Amino acid sequence: MDGGLTLEVDDLVVGYGDRPALRGLSLRVEAGEVLALTGPNGSGKTTLLKSVLGLVTPERGTIRVGGTDVGGLARRERARRIAWVPQSEAPMDNVPLLEYVLYGRHPHIGGFERENAYDAVRVRDALAAVDLTDRADAGILELSGGERQRALLARALAQDTPILLLDEPTSSLDIGHQLDLLDRIRALSRGEGRTVVTAMHDLNLAARYADRIAVLDHGRLVALGPPSAVLSPTLLRDVWGVTADLRHDARTGLPFLVPRLPPAIPPEAGSATARPGPIHVLGGGGAAVSTLQRLVDEGFRVTAGALNLLDSDSEAAQSLGVPFAAEMPFAPLSDEVRAENRRFMLAATAIVITPFAVGPSNLGNLEDVAGLGPGSPPVILFVQPPWTLRDFAAGRVTPIINDLLARGASPVQGVDELLALLRARTLRARDPPVADAIRSVG
Amino acid sequence: MPAAGAPGVGDRLGRRRFGGWLLASTVATMAFLTLASFFVGTVPIPFRVVAAILLHQASNGAVFSSPCAGTVPAFRCAAFTAIVWDLRVPAVLLALIAGAALGLAGGTLQGVFRNPLADPYLFGLSAGAAVGAAGLYVFNIGLRESNITLPLFAFLGAVVTGAAILAIAGGRLGSVETLLLSGVALSYLLSGVLSLMLLYNPFGSLQVSFWLLGGLTGATWDRVGVAFGGLLVAGSLLVVASREVNVLQLGDEVALSLGVEVARVRTRLILLASLATGFAVAFTGVIGFVGLISPHIVRRIFGPDYRVVLPGSALVGGIFLLGASDLAQTILPQTVLPVGVLTAFAGAPFFLYLLQRKRRQGTGGR
């Protein structure tokens, strides 16, 4: 194996009629890179792989490996350049694993030859690469699911090609075996410089293992680039119709997408003004994440109170599109930010205080609620866990909480209770605001 | 046969697992059965006489100067010699060759169709060959006496049938039911054609019934030679192709990705199976189930590698048909049963067993 070769697909059209599988797709895979091919079901991933393999005949377009047009090559020559790990394989005889992997040498063995010592070496190397040397004599049907998938990979490795194509190689594996197999594939690419193209459904695994991600949709290439450039909530919504948040792995900095749960009540289709709210949420350090998420899902307009950037709550607010008063990371609340926070409070129909930890730097949040004059929005207060445990401001928190409760703030035990309260009042009196209704309950 | 390869490769590949002795004992079984069969027949001939005749003829007179080594009077010796050397020996050899050809064809068809129920008899290949051969007589084509045109026409009949099966099966080779049912339907149709030929038969040839029943009575040295030639050609080409048959077992798409020209290989394999079937059927008529059973026995003993299954099926097929032929002559006193009756008695229950097992395992694969 002298390293990989480039794979160039140019203007590929596959299939007839008004719904062709590939519609003029062009793609260049660099030598030695791992490219993840993603896209919804039916987007053309498998068709692209099969076109490169020559299993389907394109209407138009060329496929080049290291500059050579493989369309004109005999099957055998093609099989020496491109190997395939299919998603699954038809059940077959209980061939010993070693023989099975030896089938990968087929394109290298002439019609009247038999396998030689070099073929045996390649087979043994392939088995070692997938850690199946000990199972060499086991029948293929006796292998476990994970071993069987590795055996498929070993056969493709024994084929000794610069290009390796994989069609969802991990789709039938548990998470442990998925990571293991992808680790191996990536190591093979790094170690031997093979060019790897793998179809994958899991974008987060793709981001983790691929140098670049190609996104297909309706037979076209809609995005191509490194994971950090390609993965975005917008892409997920446009291509898959999924709402998700983009996060970054704390250790590696790699992006990953977290799909949202579907809302319990679909947001009203009408204009923003038809939706109840705004509800202003105070939080910090992650205490408000679930509240923000649920309120948005339930169709409320939401704002959020002075939050430090990079804080979990501020990230949640950002990804949910919730406007909030933003302070610099780890900085105490400045006067400007507190003023902005107060403007949010006064515009709200209710103020929700989530059970965030309060220290000297963010005490301003609570002080500003307490300082609001008469006629201000009603306050709803989480009382679990107890505020005494969240007081990191030398005992100055508890008096403020008690004062708020004494002045009519509604105590709630958790998010469900909060929503029940808001929903009941909103349904009874959508306009004028919920304020009076809540106050009457309090 | 187990491949030796470079030092260490064969061992590493685990091919020696079953040992050469299994193969050797199979060959020994065949040799012993062959020798024993020379002494089996409806006419009782003393052991010593048969042995003397065989040695005299085989050594071209070098061992015994007189044909029967003086064991019997000359007029009886002439009759015995004719029976042993011109009837029994060709019949035994033809049984071996035809059995080998049918076993080979069965193994090949099972490999091509990835279906353990494939067999030249069940798929109508044998019936097609019989129609081809019988056609020579029914239509009184001038070449009918030739031992070359007979297998040629049988071959053509089998090829047309094979092409029909391929066309019917189309791309859906995985569908066991479609394939089997179309094969069985084709087989019935061709049997019907053969019966029609027997009735129509404007030249009143009695030969047609021979292909319906099947048997080894028509064996001559010439025919043994021709059949052996056909077997040799088909067999050696099939053994060369056997690695491709192995790769075909992975499925059409994987085979293509491994550089096998699937359509071309499949056509070639069916052509060769038809060749083997045609040469067997031309001289022995339609004998069932040899091609079904032999590959299964080989797989059971030697494993699924077609490089072993194909030649192995030839060996076992020969043993099976010769054994059946010996039984057909000895099971009832003074009566020779058609050998096809014996193979059917062994084969039909076996087929049902396979069908049953297949149903338990679900469809596809084996």
Shape designation of chain A = elongated
Counted up, domains of chain A total 2
* Mean pLDDT over the residues of chain B: 83
Sheet having the most strands of chain A: 6 strands, mixed
Blueprint of the fold:
The complex is a heterodimer of chains A (442) and B (366).
Chain A: E1 7-14, E2 22-29, E3 34-38, H1 45-53, E4 60-65, E5 68-69, H2 75-79, E6 82-85, H3 97-102, H4 117-129, H5 145-158, E7 163-167, H6 175-192, E8 195-199, H7 203-209, E9 212-217, E10 220-225, H8 227-230, H9 233-240, E11 244-248, E12 255-259, E13 279-282, H10 289-297, E14 302-308, H11 312-320, E15 324-327, H12 335-347, E16 350-353, H13 363-370, E17 379-382, H14 397-406, E18 410-412, H15 415-428, H16 435-441
Parallel strand pairs in A: 3-8, 3-9, 6-7, 7-8, 13-14, 13-16, 14-15, 16-17, 17-18
Antiparallel strand pairs in A: 1-2, 1-4, 4-5, 9-10, 11-12
Helix pairs in contact in A: 4-5, 10-11, 12-13, 13-14
Chain B: H1 9-12, H2 19-37, H3 47-58, H4 74-112, H5 125-138, H6 149-169, H7 176-200, H8 208-213, H9 221-248, H10 252-257, H11 262-284, H12 290-302, H13 306-330, H14 339-361
Helix pairs in contact in B: 2-13, 3-4, 4-9, 4-11, 4-12, 4-13, 5-6, 5-7, 5-11, 6-7, 6-11, 9-11, 9-13, 12-13, 13-14
